[in-house]
C-alpha cells in the first residue's frame, strides 16, 4: 500500500535550500498528487527552523528527524532513517534534489525500498498512462523518457528546472520533529572544511570566457586567457571538470555547485552543455559556444554556434582581431 509522495528537504546553516521548494512544486505536478498527500521529510541537526519555514511556505506537513550526531550530510544515516520511516508503507514517489548528496543516497534508498531510481529528471510528461520522466542521456545529446513500472520510485530532480510556487496562503502544515540516533557502520564524518571560494570576479565581469574539458590540457588555458584579454571587464571561468582537475580555482566554476553568472557575453569554449553548467550561465545576455561536436548540448542555449576545433579557431580569431585593430 503506497499512500504518500515524499519530498526530502535540503537545508544548511539553519536555512532551507531553495531547491526544496522546487521539489515541492515538482511533487504537486505529479498526477498522483491529486489523490495522495505530499509529506516533506527533513533530516539532520538544527532542523526546527527550516522545518517550520517549509510548513509555513508550502502548507504541507513536515516530519523532521533531529539527529544531533549528524551535523553534516551522511548518506548512510539518511538511508537508515528513511527506510525505517517508510517501513510498512512504502511511498509512491520519493522526490530528492539531484545535488551531490541527493545523487549519493538516492540509488541506495531505491535498493532498500525495492523501488526504481530515476536520476537527473529535467521534465515531467503527463499522458493518459500517467507520469513519464525525461532525463538527458549521452551527455545531453538525447532525452530518455522513462515510465517506471515499480510501485515505489525514487526520483532525483535537477535543481533550477521546476519553478517553486509562491508562498502558500493556506494554513501552515504541521511540524512533527522526532529524535533519532542512528549508528553509522561504514561512514564517519570528521567534519567539514569550508573552502574559501571567491566568485566575485566572474559574477561582476561583463564578458566571461569559460573553459571546458574540451581545451584538452591545462596549457591551453593560455588561449582562453588571450581571448579574455581582448575584452575589458572580462574574466575567465570554467566547468566543474576543469576546476576538479585543478586547472582553475573553484572560484571560477560556473553552475549549480558554482557561481551563477549573467554577463553581457558568455563564451563557452569546449564545454558540452551539461544542465549543471547551463543552469549557472543560461541567464547571460549573449552566448557564443565553440565546440567541435555539432550536436553538443551547449548549442541549444547558444546565440552563435561555432563548430570548430578551439585549438585552431581561437588563435585564428585572436589573430584576425589583432589585424583588424592594427
Ligand atoms: C551534483 C552535480 C553537480 C554538478 N555541478 C556542476 C557545476 O556546477 N558546473 C559544471 O560545469 N558542472 C557540474 N557538474 C558536472 C556536469 O555534469 C558535467 O560533467 C560538466 O559540466 C562537464 O564539463 P565539460 O563540459 O567541461 O566537459 P565535457 O562534458 O567532457 O565536454 C567537453 C566538450 O568539449 C568538446 N571538445 C573536445 N575537444 C574539443 C576541441 N578541441 N575543440 C572544441 N570542442 C572540443 C567536446 O565535444 C565536449 O562537448 C555537476 C555534476 C553533478 C552530478
In short:
The protein has 326 residues and is of the alpha/beta class. Helices cover 26% and strands 25% of the residues.
Summarize the structure in words.
The chain is α/β, with parallel strands linked by helices and 326 residues long. The protein has two domains: 5-179, HUPs (Rossmann fold); 200-325, 3-Layer(aba) Sandwich (Rossmann fold). Helix content is 26%, strand content 25%. It has helices at 19-29, 48-58, 75-86, 100-112, 200-204, 221-229, 240-244, 275-278, 310-325, and strands spanning 5-8, 11-12, 15-16, 38-44, 61-66, 93-97, 116-121, 123-127, 130-137, 142-146, 153-157, 175-179, 207-211, 234-238, 265-269, 286-290, 304-306. The strands form four sheets. A seven-stranded parallel sheet has the order 7-11-6-1-4-5-12, sandwiched between helices. Strands 14-13-15-16-17 form a five-stranded parallel sheet. α6 links the parallel β13 (207-211) and β14. α3 crosses α4 (100-112) and α6 (221-229) packs parallel to α9 (310-325). The longest helix has 16 residues, at 310-325. It is elongated. It starts with a strand and ends with a helix. The model has no long low-confidence stretch (mean pLDDT 92). It binds flavin-adenine dinucleotide (FAD). Flavin-adenine dinucleotide binds next to α4, α7, α8 and α9. Residues 99-100, 103, 139, 212-214, 216, 239-242, 253-258, 270-272, 274, 276-277, 280, 290-293, 296, 309-311 line the site of flavin-adenine dinucleotide.
Amino acid at each position: 500500500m503506497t499512500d504518500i509522495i515524499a519530498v526530502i528537504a535540503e537545508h544548511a546553516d539553519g536555512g532551507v535550500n531553495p531547491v526544496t521548494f522546487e521539489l515541492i512544486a515538482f511533487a504537486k505536478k505529479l498526477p498522483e498528487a491529486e489523490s495522495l498527500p505530499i509529506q516533506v521529510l527533513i533530516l539532520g541537526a538544527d532542523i526546527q527552523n527550516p522545518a517550520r519555514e517549509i510548513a509555513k511556505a508550502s502548507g504541507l506537513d513536515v516530519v523532521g528527524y533531529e539527529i544531533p550526531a549528524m551535523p553534516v550530510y551522511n548518506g548512510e544515516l539518511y538511508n537508515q532513517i528513511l527506510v525505517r520511516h517508510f517501513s510498512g508503507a512504502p511511498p509512491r514517489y520519493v522526490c530528492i534534489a539531484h545535488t551531490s548528496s541527493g545523487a549519493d543516497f538516492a540509488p541506495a534508498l531505491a535498493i532498500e525500498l525495492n523501488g526504481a531510481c530515476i536520476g537527473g529528471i529535467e521534465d515531467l510528461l503527463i499522458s493518459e498512462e500517467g507520469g513519464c520522466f525525461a532525463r538527458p542521456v549521452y551527455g545531453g545529446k538525447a532525452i530518455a523518457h522513462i515510465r517506471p513500472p515499480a510501485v515505489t520510485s525514487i526520483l532525483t530532480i535537477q535543481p533550477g528546472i521546476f519553478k517553486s510556487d509562491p508562498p502558500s496562503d493556506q494554513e501552515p502544515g504541521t511540524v512533527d520533529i522526532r529524535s533519532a540516533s542512528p549508528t553509522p557502520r561504514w561512514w564517519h564524518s570528521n567534519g567539514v572544511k569550508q573552502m574559501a571560494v571567491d566568485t566575485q570576479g566572474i559574477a561582476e565581469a561583463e564578458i566571461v570566457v569559460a573553459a571546458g574539458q574540451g581545451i584538452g590540457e591545462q596549457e591551453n588555458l593560455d588561449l582562453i586567457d588571450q581571448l579574455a584579454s581582448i575584452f575589458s571587464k572580462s574574466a575567465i571561468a570554467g566547468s566543474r571538470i576543469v576546476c576538479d582537475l585543478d586547472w582553475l580555482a573553484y572560484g571560477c566554476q560556473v553552475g549549480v555547485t558554482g557561481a551563477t553568472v549573467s554577463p553581457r557575453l558568455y563564451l563557452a569554449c569546449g564545454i558540452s552543455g551539461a544542465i549543471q553548467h547551463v543552469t549557472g550561465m543560461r541567464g547571460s545576455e549573449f552566448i557564443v559556444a565553440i565546440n567541435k561536436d555539432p550536436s553538443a548540448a551547449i548549442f541549444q542555449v547558444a546565440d552563435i554556434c561555432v563548430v570548430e576545433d578551439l585549438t585552431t579557431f581561437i588563435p585564428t580569431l585572436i589573430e584576425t582581431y589583432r589585424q583588424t585593430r592594427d
